[in-house]
Amino acid sequence: MNDIIRLKDRDFELYIGEAAIVGAIERMAVEIERDMSGRDPLFVGILNGAYMFAAELMSKLSPSYELTFAAYSSYRGTQSEGKVKELLPVRGDTAGRTVILLEDVVDTGLTMQYVMSKLRESGATDVRLATMLLKPDALQCDLQPDYVGMEISNDFIVGFGLDYDGAGRSSRDIYKIIKHK
């Protein structure tokens, strides 16, 4: 665990350690298992950022649950472009099922609002959202995730699947950008 890392042209400082992240995910797993008792949910990991979160969470849940992936994008660099692009649609039948989206971080909420609406329109009976991180101060819509690992400030972060132009995803810790004066 480094206190500061450099990715491309930016410096990042340690923000959340691996133990705290894994502890939050374990708590979420208990909540999800309780709520999904007797159901057959489809879990949808949102790529690329949620791959580590999805793997960690799914390892704590029943092995009978089905996992698939989808990809949407609204970011370039450190800024949201404001438009949601579907890069890889949800694979698997969602009609008549409970779908739980697994997202790395919810900031504006616009991407997840779009995806959840689309899934409901396609016939999912219940659409829920599990996010590793929530930035409540950045929300731009009325979105209330069902499962939240941690609430954090509105800083740009990397690690545990989150990236800066492709770099930093593999860190087991989360770092926030250092704003130089």
What structural class do you assign from the helix and strand content?
alpha/beta
The order of strands across the largest sheet is: 5-4-3-6-7-8
Instruction: Kindly report the average pLDDT value.
Output: 93
State the end-to-end CA separation: 26 Å
Radius of gyration, Cα only, in angstroms?
Answer: 16 Å
- Estimated share of beta-strand residues: 35-45%
Low-confidence stretches: none
Q: Give the overall shape, derived from the CA principal axes.
A: globular
Number of distinct beta strands = 10
Please provide a written account of the structure:
- With 181 residues, the chain is of the alpha/beta class.
- 21% of the residues lie in helices and 37% in strands.
- It has helices at residues 18-35, 51-58, 110-121; strands at residues 4-7, 10-16, 42-47, 66-76, 79-88, 98-106, 126-134, 147-151, 157-158, 174-177.
- A six-stranded mixed β-sheet has the order 5-4-3-6-7-8. The chain has a four-stranded antiparallel β-sheet with strand order 1-2-10-9.
- Helix 1 (18-35) packs across helix 2 (51-58).
- The radius of gyration is 16 Å and the shape is globular.
